[in-house]
Amino acid sequence: MLFSKLKSIFKNLSKQLSDALSYKAIDERDIEEFCSKIFIDLIEADVAYDVAESIVESIRRNLKGLKIPRSVDTEEYMSEILYRSLHDILSGGVAPDFLETIRNVIAKDSIAKIMFMGINGVGKTTTIAKVAYMLKQSGIRPVIVAADTFRAGAQEQLRKHCEKLGLPFIGGKYGADPAAVAFDGVVYAQKNRFNVVLIDTAGRMHVDVDLMNELKKIVGVIKPHLKILIVDALTGNDSVEQVKRFDEAVGVDSVILTKVDADASGGAALSVIIGVGKPVLYLGIGQGYDDLIRYDPDAILKMLLR
Ligand SMILES: Nc1nc2c(ncn2[C@@H]2O[C@H](COP(=O)(O)OP(=O)(O)O)[C@@H](O)[C@H]2O)c(=O)[nH]1
Ligand SMILES: [Mg+2]
User: Fold this and answer.
1) How far apart are the first and last CA of the chain?
2) Which ligand is closest to the CA of 119, given by its number?
3) What pLDDT does residue 24 have?
């Protein structure tokens, strides 16, 4: 289950808080005690240090001076307080509706050009196939372009997805100029009345200069409407660093977080969501085409606290 460990942490916490409250009013000392306990729990669940700090700070703020009405169920009330504390932190990263954004761009410019970036293995190609599937389901016609000409096999991987999805595939030879391949994709879309061009790009093991120059060239030639960075939930804090580096070099509009299903505790994923400082569009929750869910803080909070 997604976020399972965090879920049990928060459940315990609201229980303990409500037990403490059932026989006396909560004072500063209690608050500090609970806050240090939850901090350790969060760290043990792979939540990044500064993210754990900001969560605890938000809980502390919401607990201070709290007067609990006599009639309420204290455990439910505490769960409500935790909900509010996390909501304050999570709602910073909500992106405008993706499909609506795409539709607006199409209405204005006839073709929406979307570029996907990220280091090796984060799930770019898989995510593009998922996004293409979703667009197709919504009656929007996408073209997929394999502008990853760096890794042998990258073209073949995407071609297979296109066959399965019944979508045109635009590729280039190994070592070909990625910007030229992307350009071919846009021309193909224009000629054949497709609405969206999804551009897959190469990754490297690390963020490096060659990669950034390659991406800058694609951006210069194509002028994408959206530059989406794909990050892997399991990477935790390092993905926050990746967002910074890509943003400085080419600009990042929003983020898709993959492999949330593989993060057993949920702490790493939560850290990325809170730490990236960019709107999060979708969460990847598996390898199937429909394993892509819209990022919605309320839905996440329901998973965590209900
Ligand atoms: N469990 C899980 N695996 C994923 C997810 N997204 C991608 N993957 C897997 O991650 C691996 C690398 O994906 P790929 O799309 O080739 O990454 P790329 O190098 O960034 O293009 C593949 O085995 C994918 O099936 C996800 O949301 N959940
Ligand atoms: Mg790839």
Assistant:
1) 13
2) 1
3) 67
